[in-house]
Design goal:
- It is a single chain.
- With 372 residues, the protein is α/β, with parallel strands linked by helices.
- Helices cover 27% and strands 24% of the residues.
- The longest helix has 17 residues.
């Protein structure tokens, strides 16, 4: 039997239960954040909330709910090419990661006062991941999988000037999120729902995307999605992906993903073409910044912020988190994309995909999924 997220089986408190004002999700956001006072048009109120924004539940306010992957990153930074059959000197660190979790952490770091995350992890690292998310100001709702271990990604990072990375991915428990892990109560007080594209690469994840998206639409909550991986998109298929994201309000692909989804070689053309299928497309162009497209046309070209790359892992997640935080603070699309570029630049100057921890001590809800 699987423990229901609404707590009706007599188990832990429901993930959708309102969180007290004293939790770190609010406390950690109470101070000034990067992105506040930088063109978002919002002022920080008591507890880090924004003043002058619409009421909770409107597109410009409320909590951010992220549904997606929580994984363990093993980051190996090596200089020069890998030496086949022998040793390659590297600096190796084990860090918390996952596209969905990274987005949530960067959104909290960039000033979003209430960020929630639904994910699935293995029992062997559940406490660690919960603690790390809380330390970043995120309110985790983690399903502890009784059968699978936490996903693990080996990130091979070239320490050359571009700091490019290659991923070896074992998705583990993260791709076992399912509709049974969902409760409509998770949307209480939520202004935006963000879905990690990694959910689309498993049958149960695709079902959850459908369930969560339908629930959000019923409440008028806008939905964003990041395609997540060009490599996995090839396996899923372009047509299938596009059918699965029908109804999404904002698509945030990388340039490679946008080109793959349209068959076009030009990033601007690809973003414009996608915006005929999705209301708003924000294409992350790496060192070239970002493109904002709507109704078949590019509306804005946002330059990248200057940075000296150390590790590009999580740069796109940082962009997405800051972009969504800015939208919830009342920013318009172009200004939000500029905040995303600033966060991406900040991210590449760090090792790993997360911002620095900002606080600890929040209440969180972890419930267990049992076999059978």
């Amino acid at each position: 039997m699987t423990a229901r997220p609404d707590g009706t089986d007599g188990g832990p408190v429901a993930p959708g239960k309102p969180i007290r004002e004293g939790d770190a999700g609010a406390d950690a956001a109470a101070g000034a954040r990067p992105g506040q006072g930088s063109g978002t048009g919002a002022r920080s109120g008591p507890g880090g909330r924004t003043q002058g924004a619409p009421a909770a539940g409107d597109p410009g306010s409320g909590a951010l709910l992220v549904v997606g992957d929580v994984v363990t990153d093993i980051v190996a930074r090596h200089r020069g090419p890998l030496a086949s059959g022998t040793d390659t000197a590297s600096v190796i660190r084990t860090l918390p990661g996952g596209a969905g979790a990274n987005v949530a952490c960067w959104a909290a770091h960039w000033g979003c006062a209430d960020v929630r995350l639904l994910g699935r992890v293995g029992a062997e690292s559940a406490v660690w991941h919960e603690r790390e998310l809380i330390a970043c100001g995120v309110r985790p709702r983690l399903v502890v999988d009784a059968q699978a271990t936490t996903g693990t990604v080996i990130c091979l990072v070239d320490t050359g000037a571009a700091a490019e990375r290659t991923f070896l991915t074992d998705s583990g428990a993260s791709l076992r999120l399912e509709p049974g892990d969902w409760s409509d109560a998770l949307l209480d007080g939520v202004g935006r729902l963000h879905l990690s594209g990694y959910l689309l690469f498993s049958e149960s994840g695709r079902a959850l995307v459908g369930t969560a998206s339908a629930a959000a639409r019923a409440r008028g909550v806008p939905v964003s999605l990041d395609p997540a991986s060009a490599g996995f998109l090839v396996d899923l298929g372009v047509d299938r992906f596009l059918s699965l994201v029908e109804g999404v309000d904002v698509l945030l692909p990388s340039r490679a993903e946008a080109c793959l989804l349209t068959g076009l070689l030009d990033g601007a053309g690809a973003a414009a073409a996608l915006s005929r299928l999705v209301p708003l497309v924000v294409s992350k162009e790496g060192a070239d910044g970002a493109l904002v497209a709507r109704d078949g046309a590019v509306l804005a070209r946002v330059p990248a912020a200057p940075a000296t790359p150390m590790d590009t892992t999580g740069a796109g997640d940082a962009f997405t988190g800051a972009f969504l935080a800015a939208l919830l603070a009342g920013a318009e699309w172009g200004a939000a994309a500029a905040e995303g570029c600033r966060a991406g630049a900040r991210a590449v100057e760090r090792v790993g995909g997360r911002p620095p921890a900002r606080g600890a001590g929040a209440e969180s809800t972890t419930y267990r999924a049992h076999a059978g």
